[in-house]
Design brief:
Elements (H helix, E strand, L loop, with lengths): L3 H31 L3 H36 L12 H30 L3 H31 L4
């Protein structure tokens, strides 16, 4: 149990990375939407997809690994135990929803966007990716609020 504080520290760092991904997302959207040149817009889209993908993978994988380890090590926590720690159950359900949106909808849409040739199709796909990413960002922020509010429950 001596390494438990390190797990908490890494868990918080990965959550910070995920919050940073929210900032990157909205900043990159502005660059994409303000680009009028097709080549610059395509470069911005590629950078957006690469950056949010890498940061998102590292952050979500880190959250998953450290979260599972913390729940298995700490006897006060458990997986989907509704009788105690309602904040943790809410976080676990939201995390599963985030992963479902990522794997079922966001990844296929991002792949289609990366390889789309038609600018009309790209515009439709970028709006879809933005919408899905907004959903994920809201769920991430909600999850962080549950983590911060656990002291008040």
């Amino acid at each position: 149990m001596s390494y438990y504080p390190y797990l908490i520290t890494f868990h918080i760092l990965f959550a910070g990375m995920w919050l940073f991904n929210v900032v990157i997302d909205y900043r990159s959207r502005g660059n994409i939407l303000s680009s009028t040149d097709k080549a610059i817009k395509n470069t911005c889209i590629d950078n957006y997809l690469s950056t949010t993908n890498i940061v998102g993978i590292v952050a979500s994988s880190g959250i998953l690994v450290t979260g599972v380890l913390m729940v298995t090590i700490n006897p006060g926590y458990g997986f989907f135990e509704f009788s105690a720690n309602h904040w943790l159950v809410s976080k676990q359900i939201i995390f599963i929803a985030i992963y479902a949106v990522i794997f079922a909808m966001l990844i296929p849409a991002a792949k289609k966007l990366r390889y789309a040739d038609d600018s009309v199709q790209k515009n439709i796909l970028i709006k879809k990716v933005f919408s899905l990413q907004t959903t994920i960002n809201i769920l991430v922020v909600l999850n962080i609020f549950f983590a911060l509010s656990r002291r008040f429950m």
